[in-house]
């Protein structure tokens, strides 16, 4: 799926957009599954909006915004289990992380038309810190994405900064790191943006009449151990490439 030049680009810049990872048919299956999850959630007691709170937007604007950010979507529909283990994903991840690749978690991030919430600039590191920083996010695009509907923006090379102080551990000071400081990463449906969890990234509000549906999967080297027991779920550790060199009993094992 990728050349050595692209691998080098990732290691230098901390991100890489790979075109056409998923076919139009596979994208349509994931769109249908995403919409169905939102529908099922709306009928349950677990529905919510995951809009980030803070002073990065005026309060009157913030309260109007919506973000659907349900975690572990591969527990809700098998189409996402197939997606996160897709041969094209494995082909890229094995070049960026190494021969052994493990899932940390998945989630869907859906910005509805005209009111889809922003993500202020941040690193993912504070949420699930690891010792060797192998963690990579793979943002699977289910819709064409541009600045109008809130595409991802990154600051190239910032993965080399190491962990940075965040406001309440959630996002960076928006006056120092506004979304406009990022490099836009427009993408087409079926493309995947890979980026290190130390790479500063964020996205603006969806001001368009189009949805922006993404599925995000976090992957790691299984030998890269967490430094804090946070963001743990019972299905964590699914192997996508290679094997787990560390043998241990898992929860529920007998």
TrEMBL record:
Q: Which domain of life is it from?
A: Bacteria
Keywords, comma-separated and alphabetical:
Dioxygenase, Oxidoreductase
Which molecular-function annotation in GO is an example for this chain?
A: 2-oxoglutarate-dependent dioxygenase activity
Any single Pfam family the record assigns to this protein: PhyH
UniProt keyword rRNA-binding, yes or no = no
Tell me which SUPFAM superfamilies the record gives.
Clavaminate synthase-like
Please indicate if the UniProt record lists Ribosomal protein as a keyword.
Answer: no
Gene3D superfamilies to which the protein is assigned, alphabetical: q2cbj1_9rhob like domain (2.60.120.620)
Tell me what this protein is called: Ectoine hydroxylase-related dioxygenase, phytanoyl-CoA dioxygenase (PhyH) family
């Amino acid at each position: 799926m990728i050349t050595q030049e692209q691998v080098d680009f990732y290691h230098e810049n901390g991100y890489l957009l790979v075109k056409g990872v998923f076919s139009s048919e596979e994208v349509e299956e994931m769109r249908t599954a995403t919409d169905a999850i939102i529908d099922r959630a709306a009928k349950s007691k677990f529905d919510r909006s995951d809009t980030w709170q803070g002073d990065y937007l005026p309060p009157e604007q913030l309260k109007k915004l919506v973000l659907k950010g349900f975690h572990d979507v591969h527990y809700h529909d098998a189409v996402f289990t197939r997606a996160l283990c897709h041969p094209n994903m494995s082909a890229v991840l094995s070049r960026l992380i190494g021969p052994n690749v493990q899932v940390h978690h998945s989630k869907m991030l859906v910005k509805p038309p005209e009111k889809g919430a922003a993500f202020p600039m941040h690193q993912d590191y504070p949420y699930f810190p690891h010792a060797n920083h192998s963690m990579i996010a793979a943002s699977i695009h289910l819709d064409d994405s541009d600045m109008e509907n809130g595409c991802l923006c990154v600051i190239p090379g910032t993965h080399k900064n190491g962990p940075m102080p965040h406001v309440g551990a959630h996002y960076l000071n928006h006056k120092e790191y506004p979304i406009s400081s990022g490099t836009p990463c427009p993408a087409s449906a079926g493309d995947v943006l890979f980026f290190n969890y130390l790479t500063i990234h964020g996205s603006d509000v969806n001001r368009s009449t189009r949805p922006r549906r993404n599925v995000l999967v976090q992957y790691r080297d299984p030998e890269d151990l967490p430094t804090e027991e946070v963001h743990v779920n019972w299905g964590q550790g699914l192997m996508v490439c290679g094997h787990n060199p560390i043998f241990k009993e898992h929860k529920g094992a007998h």
